[in-house]
Amino acid sequence: PLLVITGPTACGKSELALRLAEGLGGEIVNLDSMQLFRGFDIGTAKPSIEQRQRVAHHLFDIRDPGDESNVARYIEDARKVVLELQFRGRLCVFAGGSTLYLTCLLHGLAALPGGKAEIRSELEARSSEDLYAELLRVDPDISLSIRPGDRLRIVRALETWQLSGSKPSLALRAHGHKEQRFTAIVIVLCRTRAELYARINERACAMLRDGLVQETKCLAAKYGTGLFQFRSLGYAQVLKHLRADLPLENLAEEIAMQTEGVPTSAQWS
């Protein structure tokens, strides 16, 4: 079976996956939608060079910023990796928090329409708050399973609704995820709320110490700020700071608070 390590941000997924892969003869496969993209390193908490040297890592840095990325493409890539590792007798250790990718990898895709670039671009240009408010209006059932900050799934749900004229929750209910494409042992890491908040605070501070502001500046200079990646946690807050809308001394606190609604007074300098 596949071994899957998942859970909330900063719960320790990468550390445990590395230990298990080393101890059980495995290799790590990315299960994070943002870590697919080159250049977005610090803000996505990608494994370090030292960690990648200890254990082979797959599906990291496989797309250029701006490339199309969706669940179907991820599943195709992940399936190839799984078959190759199983052929070599290696354990597949998936690590990350993109549960939509995991569900579709294990159970297949529902019969939803393909994406359309024009609609996707229009949706991506809107704020997360506006998008989620519309999702609540058009399909309150599916909004129950999507967090307000999960832009990837919100955009996809609204895109599906616009293209099909039908609630995406109806297609998902009909699909039912009854097909079993892979067998998996899924470990969901849990921590106390206080412990998780402390780890999120520390991660936000560490990202800034490691150069998240400079990384964001370089990426924005190279690609512009219109990429959807810049709306993800960390990068969105740094861009807000670069526009002089957020003081540097409040940046770590804002990143931590947006991560999981954390009450914090994180200080990084």
Can you describe what's shown?
The chain has helices at residues 13-24, 49-54, 71-87, 99-107, 117-124, 128-138, 140-143, 151-164, 168-175, 193-209, 212-223, 235-242, 251-260, and strands at 2-6, 26-30, 57-58, 91-95, 184-188. It is of the alpha/beta class. 51% of the residues lie in helices and 8% in strands.
How do you describe this structure in short?
By secondary structure, the protein is α/β, with parallel strands linked by helices.
List descriptors.
alpha/beta; five-stranded parallel sheet; 5 strands
Q: Kindly report the average pLDDT value.
A: 90
Tally of contiguous helical segments: 13
What percentage of amino acids are in beta strands? 5-15%
Instruction: Report the structural category.
Output: alpha/beta
Name the helix and strand elements from N-terminus to C-terminus, one letter apiece.
EHEHEHEHHHHHHEHHHH
Instruction: Estimate percent helicity.
Output: 40-55%
Question: What global shape is seen?
Answer: globular
Biggest β-sheet description: 5 strands, parallel
Low-confidence parts: none
Report the C-alpha radius of gyration, rounded.
19 Å
Q: Within the largest sheet, what's the order of strands?
A: 3-2-4-1-5
Distance between the termini: 44 Å
How many beta-strand runs?
5
